[in-house]
Amino acid sequence: MPTLFRRGPYTFFIVLHDCSERRHIHVKGGGRGEAKYWLEPVVEQAATRGYTGRDLSRIERRLRDNREALIRRWDEACEGEPT
Fold first, then answer.
1. What element of type H or E holds 78?
2. What is the value of pTM for the model shown?
3. Where are the domains of the chain?
């Protein structure tokens, strides 16, 4: 599970066995929270539990601000992974 970056209490990472899905990022941290966000066609929440609305707003802002770099990192991490 490559960690892409950490901001505040949040860790943003890729789960390699998910490489057959469309590009997305997992987020954990800040207590019991975890979430999954699609990166395309736009940043969109796929699943979440344990986060407040404020947490989700912060996470989404970081994802939107870094979307292009995250897509590149996804492609690098998933290159050659079985689909």
1. helix 67-78
2. 0.89
3. 3-78
Contact 12, 62 (CB under 8 A): yes
Give the H/E segment covering residue 56: helix 53-65
Q: Is residue 46 within 8 Å of 62, Cβ to Cβ?
A: no
Tell me how far CA of residue 11 lies from CA of 25, 46, 57, 81, 82, in angstroms: 10, 17, 15, 22, 25
> Across the chain, how many H-helices and E-strands are there?
2, 5
What share of the chain in percent tops pLDDT 90?
81
Are 2 and 14 in contact by the 8 Å Cβ rule? The answer is yes
Asked if 44 contacts 60 with a C-beta cutoff of 8 angstroms, the reply is no
Contacts of 36 (CB under 8 A, 6+ apart): 24, 25, 26, 27, 45, 46, 47, 48
